[in-house]
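Lecture 7 notes: from sequence to structure.
We start with the chain below.
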Amino acid sequence: MKIYRNLDEITAPFANAQVTIGNFDGVHLGHKVLFEKVVEQAHQEQGTSVAVTFDPHPLKVLSPNGIRLISTTAQKVEQIKRAGIEALVIIPFTREVASTPAEVFVDTILRQKIGLKGLVIGYDYALGKGRQGDIAFLRKLGEEKGFSVEVIEPHYVDNDLVSSTRIRELVTAGRMRDVYKLLGRFYQIRGIVQPGQRRGRKLGFPTANLCLSEEDLCPKSGVYVTQVLYDGKQYGGVANIGYNPTFGVNELVAETHIFDFNADVYGKPLKINLLRYLRTEMAFESAEALVHQISKDVAVAHKVLAQAREKKLIAYQV
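Predicted structure tokens for the same chain:
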């Protein structure tokens, strides 16, 4: 997949471009239906499958406190590439872009720059200033300008609407099995391992610590079964996400004990998939009580991981 991070990088329109456009936060199963349709149309029309998105997310510019994102841009790029899209155009989003009238956006960017011949959009998508480029507008414009418009209907899993909003609700509630159903993969947190107080090591359960920002989408505080990805290998683990009340920590941290692992990972990038929420974060009367509970958590985690392996749920995650 070729990635264009600025419109100036596109030197000529794509051949018979079949395009989908959206924010694609999380790249969930509903988004994947869009990508599948674009790839299918590109094959049928002997054209190019193109996804257009924005960075930062428009609401991060227009309403900075109004959204917490499921995925980083890097994660979004990885998942769109997995979907088989040939070209990804990432438009730097500014207030100037937000003020562009819908018809101007379609003409100057989608048609002239990208070479739009077929457009695939979600049932609730709208573009341009004031979201004036809704489905009815785009269909009418398509008839006038000579491009097709395909609208993908809402996608449901077990009667649950697949949407970025719904996934955010489930993540903050700690409902990781339901998140998996709508994302098609485990919810993942990433970061650089930070030096800690080495309390876990003294207790016999060393941890790799990632600092989390409360401005980002944070899972419900508590203990999770995890799959840890480091240096091309997978490991099981348990993570406490929260403030570690037993020791009075005030910083939001994901402290992960990784099974059968002894590498020095300070300053190294780590990816942590959250498989299941085990229990709430709690304060213990003593270090001994904490160790006893962690031992129970580890035993349960091994069972959960074994079940996930049997179902082949953790075979491919990256």
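Points to note: The longest helix spans residues 287-310. The two ends are 17 Å apart (CA to CA).
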